[in-house]
Amino acid sequence: MQLESISLFQFKNYEQSSFDFKVRITCITGKNGLGKTNLLDAIHMLCLGKSYFNTVEKNNVLHERDSYSLKGRLFKKSKGYDVLLKYETGQRKKISCQNKDYPRISEHWGKFPVIFITPNDIRIIDDFSEDRRRFMDSIICQYDHAYLKELIKYNKILQHRNAALKKMREERMIDDRLLDILDEQMLEAGSSIFEKRKIFEKEMKGIVLNDYARISGNAESAGFEYTSQLIGQDFNTLLKDNRRKDLDMQRSNIGIHKDDYIFSLNGLMLKRFGSQGQKKSYVFALKLSLLKLLYQHSDVKPILLLDDIFDRLDKDRMKQLLTLIFEEKTGHFFLTDTDEVRVIELLKEMSAKFEVFNIKTGNLAEYEVFE
Question: What is the pLDDT of residues 38-66, one digit of tens each?
Answer without folding.
Answer: 999 999 999 999 999 988 999 999 999 99
